[in-house]
Amino acid sequence: MAYKESIFRGLINRICQELARVAPGAQSIRVALHRARGVKIGKGVWIGYDVVLDTSQPHLISLEDNCVLNMRVTVLAHFRESKGVKIERDAFIGAGALILPNVTIGQGAVVAAGSVVTRSVAAMTMVQGNPAAPVAKCGIPIGLETSLKDFTRNLRPIPSRVPKPAAKPATPQKTEQPAKSDS
To answer: What is the mean predicted confidence (pLDDT) over 28-50?
Structure first.
């Protein structure tokens, strides 16, 4: 059965969404506005400027304690039968990332800036790209209190799954002999 939003609820929802995009207060006003819209939000959540959390069905989004959504993150929580987005504790979503429906971002996971997340992300894993793919294991979460230096020191690269092309065997090069002159 399709979700039916009342006109009044839809209007309030969209006004709160637009206010949250520009209001100050990454851990106060913006969080309160999204909670009023129906987003399930834990403690210590940080929401950057211009973040869009599913406009018509925000109740399908869950943001657990201490997660960070940087500026211009977009979370789409529904499309046809795919529903819901869960961002677990201590997860970090980089600027401009797009999170698609039916996805869970695991505890302490990191989504690099500009990534498009089409599948769930394992806990303590860093993903990047379009579509987002795992690139590293995180030794520690990148919370608001973690220095970038400490975070990067604890990253462990994940070997690429793309096989390298086989090297071609060396073929002997023919060298041309200079023509003999009759002098």
So the answer is: 96
